[in-house]
Automatic annotation (TrEMBL):
Keyword hit for Transmembrane helix: yes
Protein's name in the database: DUF4244 domain-containing protein
Keywords: Membrane, Transmembrane, Transmembrane helix
Domain of life (superkingdom): Bacteria
TM ranges: 44-62
Entries under Pfam families matching the protein: DUF4244
Length: 82
């Protein structure tokens, strides 16, 4: 089938990479899945959120009266030795 002259002048050429992806869509999908762009950033986010959660847990534990008493007793015994 012939392409009309008006369309032939305005049509953009098809790149070989686009043709390869169209021929093998599974390969293109695998390439996108194997791409690790942003993986390090996501790992930093997970580690930061874990640290924030751990810090929050420590704050809750250290604010309890029982733990505060244990720590106060520990400091008093350490200072009375010398």
């Amino acid at each position: 089938m012939a392409v009309p002259a008006a369309l032939a002048e305005t049509a953009a050429p098809v790149r070989p990479a686009v043709l390869a992806e169209a021929a093998a869509p599974g390969r293109a999908a695998l390439r996108r899945l194997a791409d690790e762009t942003g993986a390090a950033t996501a790992e930093y986010v997970v580690a930061t959120m874990a640290a924030v959660g751990f810090a929050g847990l420590l704050i809750v534990i250290l604010r309890s009266d029982e733990v505060r008493g244990i720590l106060t007793d520990l400091v008093r015994r350490a200072l009375s030795i010398g």
